[in-house]
Specification:
The protein is mostly helical. The chain has helices at about 15-20, 40-55, 70-90; strands at about 25-30, 60-65.
């Protein structure tokens, strides 16, 4: 397993793939840690993966869907909202109503 970044951090995806290949990987599954299907996933990631495939032609690379739409995401958001509301309501009552957006 290797972490990789698309911009502004290291290692980038090509470097992470090189590291995995150097350890003997011949199949690499990229799991994008993005909440929504934005420009990085629609434009940048496919281009980067295509560039890597041209260099690492003997390595099979596949990309999974982003976190968006996964049922666990809704549960995680609901849990966070409940936790935040509970913590907020634990403070002294100021007469204001709490809403969740």
């Amino acid at each position: 397993m290797e972490a990789a970044f698309l911009e502004q951090a290291a290692p980038d995806l090509p470097e992470a793939v090189r590291r995995l290949v150097n350890r003997g990987a011949s199949r690499i599954l990229v799991v994008p840690y993005f909440l929504t299907l934005g420009l990085h996933l629609q434009r940048d990631l496919p281009r980067i993966v295509a560039d890597i495939r041209r260099i690492q032609f003997d390595v099979e690379i596949r990309v999974t869907a982003p976190l968006d739409g996964h049922p666990a995401m809704a549960e995680a958001l609901i849990d966070r909202a409940r936790e935040g509301e509970k913590n907020w309501n634990a403070t002294p009552d100021d007469g204001k109503t709490t809403g969740i957006a």
